[in-house]
Amino acid sequence: MTAPILETRALEKRFGGVRAIAGVDFRLEPGELRCLIGPNGAGKSTFFKMVTGQIPPTSGSILFQGTDISRAEKHEIGRLGIGIKNQVPDVFNGVALRENLWLAARFAHGAAKAGTLADAMMERLELSSLANRPVGELSHGQRQWVEIGMVILRDPKIVLLDEPSAGMSIDETNRTAALIREVNRTATVVVVEHDMQFIRQIATKVTVFHQGSILAEDSFDRIMTDQRVRDVYLGRHGGA
User: Fold this and answer.
1) How far apart are CA 195 and CA 102, in angstroms?
2) How far, in Å, CA of 52 to CA of 152, rounded?
3) Distance between CA 208 and CA 216 in Å, rounded?
4) What residues have CB less than 8 Å from 160, skipping those under 6 apart?
5) N or C, where is the chain less crowded by C-beta within 10 Å?
6) Nearest by Cα to 209 from 7, 52, 47
7) What pTM was estimated for this model as a whole?
8) Distance of CA 84 to CAs 170, 184, 222, 223, 238, Å?
9) Would you tell me how many other CB atoms lie within 10 Å of the CB of residue 1?
10) What angle do the packed helices 111-125 and 140-152 form, to 10 degrees?
């Protein structure tokens, strides 16, 4: 068995008397594309925020390539090679699309290479015609793609995406699925999502959260037929 790229051991988060995450053991192998699902309040967003350094765990540990990052700051986690994209796009709305990508490329690769890398990423995202458009004027889906591009330009080892298809049209969702599959060729990917049709397009393995714990973990097809999952989640989200 290969060593996990990301692992949590007995991870727990309490908010006062509420146990939002209840001793979760999670293991992610290098090269995986893992989807996290579960009903509202299941704990998946809290788990995501702990792994990305947005909130500290109450107890337990988070290991990245064997190193404990449980108390690391968000910027420290980024420098280690964990790229984060939250649900709301974190972009410079008043700055041109190319400039957003250039800034991300410069941070990771220096000014000399930034222009070439930014241009290549615009082609990859099929957004070259909008190079000089302020990002704030783009559609929701296009802004999501710009941020994913900014994350990729930093060459992360893991890309963590929180509901990347939220608010998108069908065409935008399909393009986002194709982009995520492409990202997975060079990076391990974790996606928190609600849209089961979107998950169907990308998932190789699915982890289901329920009441702060992992209820089930298996392939997409087996998760879809798991009666426990159907009872607590799929029936509410159009699963069949």
Assistant:
1) 32
2) 16
3) 5
4) 48, 51, 52, 82, 83, 84, 85, 189, 190
5) N
6) 47
7) 0.90
8) 24, 14, 28, 26, 28
9) 5
10) 140
Where do the H-state alpha helices sit in 85-237? 97-109, 111-125, 140-152, 170-183, 196-202, 220-225, 227-232
Tell me how far apart the alpha carbons of residues 135 and 142 are, in angstroms, rounded to a whole number.
8
pLDDT tens-digit series, residues 145-189: 999 999 999 999 999 999 898 888 889 999 999 999 999 999 999
Burial of 124 (0-12, 13-18, 19+ CB in 10 A): middle
pLDDT in tens, 79-130: 899 999 887 778 899 999 999 999 999 988 999 999 999 999 999 999 999 9
Q: What is the mean pLDDT of residues 190-214?
A: 92
Q: How far apart are CA 161 and CA 84, in angstroms?
A: 6
Q: In angstroms, rounded to a whole number, what is the distance separating the alpha carbons of residues 117 and 104?
A: 10
Q: Are 94 and 105 in contact (CB under 8 A)?
A: no
